[in-house]
Design a protein that fits this description.
It comes from Paenibacillus hodogayensis. The chain has nine helices and 17 strands. Helix content is 23%, strand content 27%. The structure holds guanosine-5'-diphosphate.
Length: 369
């Protein structure tokens, strides 16, 4: 009986039905010794954490659990993928508790950007997405920008309450928490983990010097982010780590841009205009004619058009189309969650099609920059 089998790596109950859920192993692997769930198999054989941990249920249980406590909720999002990393409807779960929105990775934007403009933009976007916040703070955990503001805002909103830190994976939660531990906690005390009732997840507790704790919750995996669909090596290409140098393309209608073999941008119709790509500097962009694009993709995916490389192409969901009409005079970004965005500053309007892996969030928004 499959239900009695457990992974000899992590101990989770094995199931063969849902590859995206915890404990999945392909039926053909059941008689292997040792028996490993797919996640442990990948960690063991490829040294790679796969995105197979959507403990959505457990995650929501934890969030609801916070609603029953008096706490400050610190919600960390990634400025590079703001919409993709927001926890929609957070306040429905955390009840009356105040939410401090910490927007990380500001170092990725060009230096000349006006901070107040970004703050206003973030506040408006958060509101439009129904995310209520007591305050918004911009920072870079990695480059140590704005960290004092984060600490100061936590102190101000916390009173004597515990602090729960929530966020999606790869937003920089660990980086920020490690800084908090160094600057803020009672260094004599040890970090502890405690199982959260009714879930398979452990919470990490960081003691503060007033006897309260900062509690790190597991990062939720949002598979609508391209960053969660690629392997560790390709993640280094997709995830920017230095200030983004935007690439500007003057395109005629019926021209296309490939971002590796991950995403394709078609300028279908409109007057000649420029498109500014805010993606990781390491992401290769390839320009071609729209009429050649299908053929080029078939011939060169995984080699000239990479990442992903040939052997990893099959792990990426097939590309699906999203069509947009950019209004005349609009200043818009076409966001591809996890990849970045393409700014369109269109006097004449533009008809655009994005081909992105199935499930990846694609949307048009007011321009950030
Ligand atoms: P977690 O999954 O949310 O805990 O994220 P990590 O702290 O592991 O960070 C994910 C990735 O983002 C790592 O490659 C970090 O180096 C990077 N990162 C974290 N904070 C920042 C930041 O402020 N700026 C930039 N550019 N990268 C960051």
């Amino acid at each position: 009986n499959v239900n009695d089998l457990r992974c000899s790596g992590c101990g989770v109950a094995i199931q063969t039905e849902s590859p995206e859920k915890l404990g999945y192993a392909p039926a053909a692997a059941l008689n292997k010794d040792p028996l490993l769930c797919q996640r442990c198999f990948r960690i063991k054989n490829y040294n790679e954490i796969s995105s197979v941990t959507p403990n959505q249920d457990d995650f929501l249980k934890i969030l609801s659990g916070i609603g029953g406590k008096e706490a400050l909720v610190v919600h960390i999002v990634d400025l590079f993928d703001f919409e993709g990393s927001l926890i929609a409807g957070l306040h429905r779960f955390v009840g009356q508790n105040p939410v401090l929105l910490v927007v990380n990775k500001v170092d990725l934007l060009p230096k000349a950007i006006n901070v107040n403009r970004i703050l206003n933009w973030v506040q408006k976007q958060a509101k439009d997405h129904g995310v209520r916040t007591s305050e918004v703070v911009l920072c870079s955990a990695k480059k140590n920008i704005g960290f004092d503001r984060v600490v100061e805002a936590i102190a101000r909103h916390r009173g004597k309450k515990d602090v729960y830190v929530v966020g999606a994976t790869n937003v920089g939660k660990s980086t920020l928490i490690n800084r908090l531990i160094r600057d803020y906690s009672d260094l004599e005390a040890e970090l502890t983990t405690s199982p959260f009732p009714g879930t398979t997840l452990d919470l990490v507790q960081i003691p503060l010097d007033d006897g309260r704790d900062i509690i790190d919750t597991p990062g939720i995996v949002y598979t609508h982010r391209l960053t969660e669909l690629v392997n560790k090596r390709d993640l280094q290409t997709v995830l920017p780590d230095k200030p983004i140098k935007p690439s500007v393309f003057q395109l005629n209608e019926e021209q296309s841009l490939f971002f590796g073999a991950m995403v394709r941008f078609d300028f279908v119709q409109g007057a000649r205009q420029s498109f500014t790509c805010y993606v990781s500097n390491a992401m290769p962009i390839h320009r071609t004619k729209l009429e050649r694009a299908d053929e080029l993709y078939e011939e060169h995916k995984g080699v000239m058009l990479a990442p992903p490389s040939k052997e990893n192409l099959d792990n990426l969901p097939p590309l699906v189309k999203h069509s947009f009409r950019i209004r005349k005079g609009a200043q818009s970004d076409v966001l591809i969650s996890g990849l970045g965005w393409i700014a369109v500053n269109s006097d004449a309007g533009a008809q655009i099609v994005i081909h992105a892996p199935k499930g990846v969030k694609v949307a048009v928004r007011d321009s950030l920059i």
